[in-house]
Every structure is written in structure tokens, then in C-alpha cells.
Amino acid sequence: MSSPELLERAMEGFRLYEEGDYPEARLIFEELAQQDPLEAYYRTALGAIYLAEDELDAALEAFDEALKLNPKDSAALVNRGEVHLRLGNIMEAAQDFARAVDLDPENKDPLTMRARLLAAAAIETIEAAQRSAPAELKK
């Protein structure tokens, strides 16, 4: 496929994702990921689909792959952070959110606001766990 055809397919896949047709969107992004293995966006999109379908391990793997290809992919960072949060990996989640916020110091990307909110929730979870820990563990 040519670049314009890949873009057209990606736009179709995104539209299907937005409409909640995750199985069809998944097929498109799996095909695109095979066609262009160096494009991080396709893996980020797959991760978002897996996340929406509650396939957290598959989502984590897709976001990891996306971030290997593009370490500055804020969508992959925020979404991977959410996966970590849902898996109970609070520190990993907080790190991903912090990296996403660092990538957008002027807070122009809507994902950054989401990252800030989720980071605050992660920190609150850590602080609540520390407050409720037995005194022996706090030493």
C-alpha cells in the first residue's frame, strides 16, 4: 500500500474505533502494523482498542511496542499509564503520566490534562496506601 492508502485505512480504523466497532478497527490496525512495522501510531491504536476491550496485557504489550518505536508518543504513555493503574502498578503508572506531562510543558495536548488527572489519582492512591499501612511497615 502507498502512504496515502495507509493513511486512508488508518482514518477508517480510527472512525471504527470512535464508533465502538473494535473488532473491525482491530483488523485494520493489525493489517497496518504488518504493512508498516516502524509506525508507532498503529501499535498505539491497537493498544487503545485492547484497552477499550479490557484486554490489559495485550494493551500493555502494544503500548510498549509503540514506545519503543516512538518514546515521545504521549498517547501511548498516557494509555499505558492507565493500563498500569488498572493493573495496580501505581509507580509505573505515575512514571508514564509524569513523562507525558514533561513532553507537554505548555499543556497544549488534551492528553496532558488527562495525564495530570490520572497522575494525581495515582499519587493519592500511593499516599492512601502509605497512610493505611501498619506502623511497622512505615519505618
TrEMBL record:
InterPro entries per UniProt: TPR-like_helical_dom_sf (IPR011990), TPR_rpt (IPR019734)
PROSITE patterns in alphabetical order: TPR, TPR_REGION
SUPFAM superfamilies: TPR-like
TPR repeat ranges, renumbered to this chain: 40-73, 74-107
Top-rank lineage group of the source organism: Bacteria
Pfam families hit by this protein: TPR_9
Keywords, comma-separated and alphabetical: TPR repeat
Protein name (Swiss-Prot/TrEMBL): Tetratricopeptide repeat protein
